[in-house]
Amino acid sequence: MELSQIQGIADRMKENVAKVIVGKEETVELMLIALIASGHVLLEDVPGTGKTMLAKTIARSLDCTFKRIQFTPDLLPSDISGINFFNQKLSEFEFRPGPLFAHIVLADEINRATPRTQSSLLECMEERQISIDGETRALEAPFLVIATQNPVENQGTFPLPEAQLDRFLLKIPVGYPTAAQELHILQRFKQNDPLVELLPVVNRADLVAAQKHYSRVRVSDDLLKYIVTIVEMTRSHPDVAMGVSPRGSQAMLKAVQAYALIRGRDYVLPDDIKALVKPVFAHRILTRTRARSQENPAFAILEKILAQAPVPTEVALG
Predict the structure, then answer these.
(1) At which of 172, 196, 214 does a domain end?
(2) Which residues form the AAA+ ATPase domain (predicted)?
């Protein structure tokens, strides 16, 4: 697949999503990065900010199978993975697949499910497979989990464990719209729901081809060292109890390669890494107690690290 074709996929997706979602260009671009890099996304913000609408719009823009799971405290692992049941007519066991057997899975309000159900997603998110009753079933590519969650301070929620958070390529805060954007939203939705009429603009084969291409984007050794330097600084920072894991540094590599592609380049720049440090690394940092009093302690820590980490020069990039 040519670079221009991948750019075309990104442009078509952006244009289609804009028919429903007002503003949020940066958020949409981050979602496209996850799509191309085969990564999962966690959308976080207070109720009513459009997390579910954004996830549905992305899914509708793709000619892929889509399933939505409403996470609740009584949801069981078998409810999402599927079960083997005994068919009395055939006198044999049959497998009934759960909603995880889809290309795009919307895990709505994931932090309302119990830790047991949350942890049932670990295998499918990391290895693209599900083990049920001793039998492993592969998930068809592409496989993307788009999860939404409300802040953990809300009543009736269960914080995601660090192991679960580490499986998400990006964690994206949605945020409130501006006054002008909110007025536009009211005008757009006052008669019809544009999501109902939205048609897919990217087919499955093209998306899979783009996912195979992104790893060819060139990343110099200097930029790899720049990523490692930032990661090591998170591990030694006095306000950090647990820094970014090796999985996190690999996630950054994948994300910046996809980011360069949708920007029309086959090489990565230092600014690409800077732009993605927060969405890739912030949810992978466990801050100490004294740092948690800040509104976004991980963001503040990463900003300080970026200011201190030596940036590769243009000469070094070669």
Answers:
(1) 214
(2) 37-178
Question: Are residues 278 and 242 in contact, defined by beta-carbon separation less than 8 angstroms?
Answer: no
Most confident of 105-114, 201-210, 213-222, 227-236: 227-236
pLDDT tens digit sequence for 214-233: 888 999 999 999 999 999 99
Together in a domain, 273 and 239: yes
Calculate the CA 214 to chain-centre distance.
Answer: 16
Is 234 in contact with 244 (CB distance < 8 Å)? yes
**Tell me, what CATH number does 25's domain have?**
3.40.50.300
**With a threshold of 0.85, does the pTM exceed it?**
yes
Give me the half-sphere count of Cα atoms (radius 13 Å) on the Cβ side of residue 112. Answer: 19
The model's pLDDT over 8-22, given as tens digits with 9 standing for 90+, comes to 888 899 999 989 888
Distance CA 133, CA 10 (A): 40
Beta bridge partners of 43: 148, 172
Burial class (CB in 10 A: 0-12, 13-18, 19+), 12: middle
CA dihedral 118, 139, 40, 64 (to 10 degrees): -120
C-alpha–C-alpha distance, residues 36 and 257, integer Å: 9
